[in-house]
Every structure is written in C-alpha cells, then in structure tokens.
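Changelog note: in this version the structure field was regenerated for every chain. One regenerated record is shown below for reference.
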Amino acid sequence: MFGLEKPAGQQKPGRSGGLPKMASVGDFNVLSSSIPATKVELSVSCRNLLDRDTFSKSDPICVLYTQAIGNKEWREFGRTEVIDNTLNPDFVRKFIMDYFFEERENLRFDFYDVDSKSPNLSKHDFLGQMFCTLGEIVGSQGSRLEKPIVGIPGKKCGTVIVTAEELGCCRDSVLMQFCANKLDKKDFFGKSDPFLVFHRSNEDGSFTICHKTEVVKNTLNPVWQAFKISVRALCNGDYDRTIKVEVYDWDRDGSHDFIGEFTTSYRELSRGQSQFNVYEVINPKKKGKKKKYVNSGTVTLLSFLIETEVSFLDYIKGGTQINFTVAIDFTASNGNPSQPTSLHYMNPYQLNAYGMALRAVGEIIQDYDSDKMFPALGFGARLPPDGRVSHEFALNGNPQNPYCHGIDGVMEAYYRSLKSVQLYGPTNFAPVINHVARYAASVKDGSQYFVLLIVTDGVISDMAQTKESIVNASKLPMSIIIVGVGPAEFDAMEELDGDVVRISSRGRFAERDIVQFVPFRDYIDRSGNHVLSMARLAKDVLAEIPEQFLSYMRVRGIKPSPAPPPYTPPIHVLQTQI
C-alpha cells in the first residue's frame, strides 16, 4: 500500500520472479512475471444520474469490477463511498490498480442508488453501468475518459468521467552510497572482501532480494560505489516496510561468509547522512554465544538522492499518439486459403493464426490511438487486374488511403484481400518497414510514435535490405513487432530481434533495439483457450514497447508535453440586443 492510504478494493495478485525483476506479494499470475509497470489511481465522477428516490435525489455508489483473463468472469475490485442526495457525485475514494501497457484490463463500473445499510447490491436500485479498458482511460486525452452510462433500456442514465493519475512514488529512484567500519575479519590470510545484499520484506513476512553491491577486496572499512534502485523494487512503494541488509565476505568458491545484518526502512534512509543512518551489523549466532559481543562492525549511509523518472504514461497523458500499422504476409508458402491446412484458411468458426495475432496486439494498441484508423498493408502477392507482384499493397484496395477503421476494419480488409489477390512471393520485409519509416521520419518531435506489426510465415528473402531498413529506422520514433506463424524455422528472425547481438548493416549498428520477434506456436494454449493464447502473445510482444519508446525520447532529449487542463464546459453568456 502507499504510505497510510487505504485504496478502495484489493490489489491485483502480485507479480513474481527472480533478480532483477522483483517479486511482490500475492498469488502467482500465470501471465505475469514482472513487477507492475506502475500503479494508477482512478477517480470517478458522474453527471445527470437517474433519480430513483421519490422525495429526494439518489444516494449513489460506484462498484468497480475487473475481468479475469481467459474465463471472462467479472470480479468485484472495490467500492467507493456512498454520497447522499446527488445526481452529480464526485467520489472521494479512489481505485488503485496495477497498470501494464501490454495487458488488456477490462473494467466495468456499476452504479447503484443505496437504499439501506445492506452490502448486498441486489437490495439497492441499479442506476446503470459503463464498460471500458484501463488502456482506454489512460490513452484518452489527459487520461480522462467520459462515456455514457448504459444498462437501463429506454432511459438516459447520465455520463461517467473516469480520470487516471499515475502514482508518483512508482517513478522515484534513489541513488544511495554506503561505507562500513571495523567489519569482522573472515579471511585467514587477508582481511575480508565485503559486499552488501539488500532485501525488501513481503506482506507474508518473507524477504525478496532486490540489490547486491560490488565486492570491495581486502578491507574491513569498505566504501561501496553509489547505486541506483527504484523505490518500487526497494520497498514496493511502502515507506515503512522493512528493508533487510546483509553483509557478506566474498569467497571465490561461492560459499560467502555471513558477517552480519541490520534492518532499516525507506523512511529512515530518506533522512540522509545522519546519526540515524549508522547501523550496527549484528551476527545473531555470535550474539547468542558471546556475552561481550557488541557488533560485527557498522555500516553508514553516505548519501541518499531521490530522482523522479519520466514515464511512458507522462508522454501518453501529454498527448503523444501511438500509430499502429499492420503488414501481412501473402506469400504462397502460407498455402491455399481455401484449404484447412493453409495458415490463411478462413474458418467460419474461429480465427486463423494471422487473425489471432492481429486481434491480440491490435486490441491493446488501439486504445492509444485517438482516431482508431490503422494503415493495413500486404506483401508478397499478385494483385488484380494485371497480376503484378507487390510488397507493399493496401489491404482495402486503396493505395492513396490504406487506413481501416479499428481492428475490426483491419480484419475485414484482410479477409477481403484473401479473396482478391493471388498468394505469390518472395518474402520481402524492407518495403513495408520503409513505408512506416517515411511517416515516422516526418514527425520526430515526440508527438507521435509508430508501431509496425508484421505477421509472417517465415523465411525472409531480403535479409540485407531488411537489416539496412531496421538500422535506419532505429533513429526514428518507431518499433517493429514480428509474429512468426506456422511451423517454419525462424532463425533469421532471432537475428533481427537484436536482443543478443545488436543488429548491424554495412558496419553500422542500430542506434537502439527496436525489433521484437515471437513465434506464434509458443503461445498456442493446449486446452484450445484462444483468449489465453492471445493474451500471452500480446503480453510478450508489447512488453518491450514502453522501454523502446522511452529510449527514443531519452536519446532525443524530448520531454513529455504538459497534460491538457481538465475539461470544463463553456459557460454561455446571454447577450442582450440593444
């Protein structure tokens, strides 16, 4: 929890994992193995609610539900307070939620007129509801979403306004430096080789390692280098949570000798260098055995500096738009679309692999694009009427305006293209990468960022040209996601990904890593649960986007624009004619 405040509802299950991704408390979520990107606070207001009370106005409450991935079951997340006698409530109690760019978090806000003290909602009058995603709120201008309340046929139920605010402490990092004095001597021939290990405490009393310092050789009075750690990793945003620090003597064989330990908290450390931040290092075993034992040395905090990092959400709130472009592989190796063995098979009952990849990624990204118009391209096909081969054609048949409305429009254009073009070859990526790069090159001020999704069945034919295109694009505000479908070997794609070796072309290296490749077959759920497959796929391919986005902004020194002021309806002044 944050400081002393108690938010409405419980937190989502914690995220778990080893160093350097820190674990937090709660159930392990099958989809998650990272610390939350950040926490956001949702504020809810309504205007013109239905009036259900005879002698006075309604007494509204808002109940928030979240939807479990996979089974679509709605679970209550929390409730606001009840506000008496109003149709225009501004609820004080907030909802604090974990926010992940790469996950689609479906939300449902239900409104009731409270008639008694009963916690049972069926005992109160239903005033309507609103459905949205967390991304939709965050991606709206100023992170402020206004939508009509629905759910009572034939009635106007009013509107709801939900505002998202990123919690500041999630973005703070601290730069700390420690030294020690008179540590116990552990080595037979020399002095000790000390290092520190930091652990944050979890709510169940266990500890999670969150930082190790370097080893300082052969001294009992070491001064360690300053290190930077996020406040979230150090104490999960809880300033009073225990931080345990262990002191070890390093041994080459890995059997490091325990010198002693001490505990502190973020609040104590934040006092900076002072008498409060000199800690006795205690070895409990020695303390139990020796009556005259005082300590095994002391550790002193030398400096403590808080740094606030700008976040992905700062840019989104400041109005940066994410433009999403789709490119689909129409080469003959996919197989005849009328045959069930084809990767492009149009099954009337379920999405093919291409459709699943498009929908999984598109449904999340579309929340960050205000006009919801997406260019959709194809490559590797012969086009009517003359059968010319194209590596950059508009799926909607309009080269001047390749935009489709929403992800549904993209799917429709994709199915229409399958009926009109002839699958051919070869598999060339460079033309579609260069297509998006031309747009990205025209807006380098941080107001727009471009994401290209390429869905392909395989072996790339223009490797040298594609590498050149990626190296050039790495200087631009864009990222490339490649999803490989089908059974092919995707070794070349791994090379483009650049996670292991930074991609280069003709001796020039990419300025930043902008490509993320995943094979779709790794995400097929054995139980046939396509919702889960798509959620897993989206999570993995989108997880790197915020960091790629921030790396571009940092290198270019682009700061987020200030968020627009909250909307206030204009006041109409009546002018009298003379």
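Spot check on this record: The CA atoms of residues 59 and 84 lie 4 Å apart. Residues 1-35, 573-578 have pLDDT under 50 and may be disordered.
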